[in-house]
Design a protein that fits this description.
about 120 residues; alpha+beta; 2-enoyl-CoA Hydratase, Chain A, domain 1; three-stranded antiparallel sheet; 3 strands; about 35% helix; flat
Length: about 120
């Protein structure tokens, strides 16, 4: 098989600018995902825990086989909508392993109230 020769010049100013822009975009994405995975502000989390309830992501993790991966889908759904307080469109949805089988697992976050703008 013939190898495909790259025409990319990793030393060019354009390449370096593109690489820096990509690093910034990835950093921004990770920051947003970190915000979403918190599942709301600390006061709301404390109130939920004070009632003796598990947080939504804890419930999903408890359901999954220990050590198995979970591919979350739609983490940024509804990002920037509804005053910014409805992370992941009030759902945790993904693919994970339960009892050795790959499953699609929606997890609704009932503590988030939907409002119309």
């Amino acid at each position: 098989m013939t190898a495909i020769k790259s025409q990319v010049n990793s030393r060019s100013a354009e390449f370096r600018a593109n690489a820096e822009r990509m690093r910034n975009l990835v950093s921004d994405l990770r920051e947003k995902i970190s915000t979403v995975t918190q599942g709301g502000d600390q006061a709301a989390r404390d109130k939920h825990l004070a009632r003796g309830k598990m947080l939504p992501r804890e419930r999903v993790n408890k359901l999954l086989d220990p050590g198995s991966p979970f591919l979350e889908i739609g983490q940024l759904a509804a990002w920037g909508m509804y005053s910014g307080d409805v992370h992941s469109a009030s759902m945790i949805c993904g693919i994970g392993r339960v009892s050795g089988r790959e499953c699609h697992r929606p997890g609704f976050r009932a503590r988030v109230r939907h409002r119309r703008q």
